[in-house]
Amino acid sequence: MSRTTSALPLRAMVAAIWRERWNQSWRFSRFKLGLWLKLAQLGAVTWIVILFRNAPEYSLSIVIALILGLSVLISILDVFGKQEGQLYSDRFLPFVHISSCPPAQMLSAVVLAELPAKAFNGLVTAIILSNLLPGELVPWTAPLLLLLSVGAGLLGDLTGLLALIYIVRAVPAVLGATRVLVPGVFIALVIYLVYMLASGVPFDLIGSLLRDNQNLIYLVAAVLMLPGAYMGLSLWLWPTRLGTVYRQGWQLVSKRLDTGRNASAKSGWPAMVQGAVGAIQAKEWLQFGRNRITYVRLLFLLAGLIAAYFLGPMIAEQDESWQGMLVLAAGVLVALLSYGEVLAAMFVGEGRNLAFYIISGTHPRHLLIGKMLAALPIGGISFLSVWAFALCSGLPVAQQLSLSFIALLLGIGLIVILVGIAAAGIQLATIEKNDQKNSAEISEQLPSGAGAWAGIGASLLFWLLGSAAGGGELSFGATLALILVLVGLLALAYGLGYARLKRLLLRGR
Fold first, then answer.
1. Could you count the other beta carbons within 10 Å of the beta carbon of residue 95?
2. pLDDT tens per residue across span 392-413
3. 160 and 80 Cβ atoms separated by less than 8 Å
4. Is 286:267 a contact under the CB 8 Å cutoff?
5. Residue 351: pLDDT above 80?
6. HEC string of 231-286?
7. What is the DSSP letter of 55?
8. Among 386, 415, 423, 447, whose CB has the most other CB atoms within 10 angstroms?
């Protein structure tokens, strides 16, 4: 077979991936999510560039070390969080594997399909970090930073891909953990970045750390890029070996998912109340308990409780007027990062099961309250995590208890916000698409669609305002105003969710 002929499947798969993304984010997207995402990125870049105007100047070697390290690490994380769905759970993969297309070309296709995004992200990174260089160096170093960012990101993709196919081949169950852990890491990084930009970037501290560890950063980046260079060379010279490893891993994952989908577990019926509400709540609890991702999320909670031990003394050093708010914000955030995605994905995870609620005549109120009742453990997690932060911060016992009970109320409020807005954003087309995925166990707890992500955004706003009202030493008028805003958000979320479910269950659309 000629080289031109063998490249045809690769070109077709790259074009198919691009076409799918274009259709989902631009052409057939009701809200044009691709456009809003790019506008948000450009807005963030503008904000960061304005903040960097008064930043001290760094040497070129430090900026290069920073851009290499960031590009490689983010690319590896991105592979584990996104490409595993493209390579293992896409509903069209069986057609690829039964065709004459070499499996290694699928690996090459997912890397090549990322090049436009890599170029855009590299341009954004170069624009931001070039502001840390002396003005006379910017005209010729900015293109260099762009090339370094794209090249390091490409090698990072290849390194992550190499690690992914071998890890999945050895431990197929790792896919469930990556789909939960990696998005959680990205959300935590974004929240920390926004917090640092809003509170002031410690340029002097960052510069000192980079100067002291510059050689180590170069070494780590080189060690992470070398497997990527080997991966690229192997895809070119020895594609059969990597293709065999990838296909064997895909077969194991498919078999495991089919087994898990058909398995049934015996358990009791943990209904808290009688009737349809208790049945819905019990069904959700049984579903949570049977899903292994639920137990993976305990790692986030454990990490948050461990963080309380280390962050508590730092909070204790802050001004007394800030301590209560910081403890409340940190503890509730742990609960939100641990299991907030589960609540946001409650209706997406139902898939076509929503049809049973329609034909059984379930009342919209019963479905909404049953879902919220099933999410009550979030309130307990908020109570526990805030109490841990308050204890490690050395606050008085009375203040520990008061903050913990406020956290319990905020946790219940987060349930109303997340479940209500997730219900309001139900799109049958999105649910049908997710239902066709092979990885049903994973997608049950993975937010998808505008409604789920809008719920996460609203919950972050509720968390911020609730922390200020419950822990900040504000005036009575300001506290009352914030409480009224919070109550209004709760009423709005419940009302929107009820209205959407009423339309869906009573009218079927």
1. 10
2. 888 888 888 889 899 999 999 9
3. yes
4. yes
5. no
6. HHHHHHHCHHHHHHHHHHHHHHHHHHHHHHHHCCCCCCCCCCCCHHHHHHHHHHHH
7. P
8. 386
